[in-house]
Amino acid sequence: MSSMLDHQSEHAQTAAAGLTVFAAVMLLIAGFLDVFRGVSAIVNDTVYVSAPDYVYKFSLAGWGWVHLFLGIAAIMVGVGLFKVSTWARVLGIAIAALLLISNFLFIPYYPLWSIVVMALCAFVIWGLCVVRQE
Questions:
Q1: CA within 20 to 30 Å of 76's CA: 4, 65, 100, 110, which one?
Q2: Can you give the pTM of this predicted structure?
Q3: Where is the DUF7144 domain (predicted)?
């Protein structure tokens, strides 16, 4: 019986580590996408559409700085997630939630890209929340 419990515990730890690595990679991808979006918005790229009557309207450069800082934070936390530490998991969930909210608010400017990054952030949150410690 003990052997069976040890095997299940070993399997659970392997799955938890795999989900954390998955979340780390997804957070790194979302972070890099947000850094690219931030730089693009700061230099006033013409890729973005104008949303004149949008409630959460900032200047395009303002949105660029928000995305740039969140992207850098996501990259830093994503690298920290490879250590499979609790602090990195908590910060990963927080940063992914902030990225998800900022991308939701950015939908009128670039809908497809925002929805893709929101999906990546949702996977990160899922991957980090289902990990259970023994």
A1: 110
A2: 0.79
A3: 20-132
